UniProtKB/TrEMBL annotation:
Family: Belongs to the GSP H family.
Name recorded for this polypeptide: Type II secretion system protein H
Organism phylogeny: Bacteria, Pseudomonadati, Pseudomonadota, Gammaproteobacteria, Cellvibrionales
One GO CC term on file: plasma membrane
Pfam families in the record: GspH (PF12019), N_methyl (PF07963)
Stored SUPFAM superfamilies: Pili subunits
NCBIfam families in alphabetical order: IV_pilin_GFxxxE, typeII_sec_gspH
Organism: Sediminihaliea albiluteola
Annotated compartments: Cell inner membrane
Keywords: Cell inner membrane, Cell membrane, Membrane, Methylation, Transmembrane, Transmembrane helix
Stretches assigned to the General secretion pathway GspH domain: 50-167
Record InterPro entries: N_methyl_site, Pilin-like, T2SS_GspH, T2SS_protein-GspH, TypeII_GspH
Membrane topology category: Single-pass membrane protein
Record region (Disordered): 179-200
Length: 200
């Protein structure tokens, strides 16, 4: 008895092709998203490390250092930039040494920042690129103390917490992964400043 071999219909081939393309697209999206997550984590860990270095430099040089946070509008997108300053007799300036280490850096345009500084009722991100002699928000004093606070990084699309970088009076910092809550005593002692929802 002869069996007839039946080939695939055009519709079956198109469905199979669609499934392959869909699976490939999802895999690519997941890999891309994971890469962005790793890049953001690496950037925040670097920020914490350079803050520690700034605290050490302040003590060794006898000059206060500071972390300056800005909100910019670049190519129609709101972007947050951070850099470091050194207090001199005339004003806050870029550090006189370590230019590459203390260079300004931009966070991805997909995230928003919230800054909470203990004991301060008003703290804002500097708007625009013309910061000149602007005073940084977080001060690393030559005495070894630091303005305690928390920097919260949120996903812009849904406001989900991605990371919290917090530091204490002695400059010891901790990077907390997504959604990890602060202690109630810390959140009540700190003033929350939400600037991420504002347009630059």
């Amino acid at each position: 008895m002869l069996l007839r071999q039946r080939g695939f219909s055009l519709l079956e081939l198109l469905v199979a092709l669609f499934v392959v393309v869909l699976v490939t697209s999802l895999a690519t999206l997941n890999v891309g998203s994971g890469g962005q997550d790793l890049q953001l984590e690496s950037q925040l860990r670097s920020l914490a490390d350079i803050n520690t270095l700034a605290a050490d430099e302040a003590q060794m040089s006898g000059r206060d250092y500071g972390l300056l946070l800005q909100q910019l509008n670049l190519r129609g997108e709101r972007v947050y930039r951070y850099s470091w300053r050194e207090r001199r007799e005339e004003a806050w300036r870029q550090p006189s040494s370590g230019h590459e280490v203390f260079a300004e850096r931009d966070l991805p345009p997909t995230v928003d920042l919230e800054l909470s500084l203990e004991g301060q009722l008003d703290s804002e991100f500097h708007l625009g690129e013309d910061v000149g002699q602007a005073k940084p928000q977080v001060i690393f004093y030559a005495s070894g103390e630091v303005s305690p606070g928390v920097l919260t990084v949120r996903q812009r699309s849904d406001a989900a917490v991605l990371w919290r970088l917090k530091w204490d009076l002695l400059g010891r910092s901790e990077l907390l992964p997504r959604g990890e809550a602060l202690d109630p005593s810390e959140s009540s002692a700190s003033a929350q400043f939400r600037r991420g929802q504002r347009d630059g």
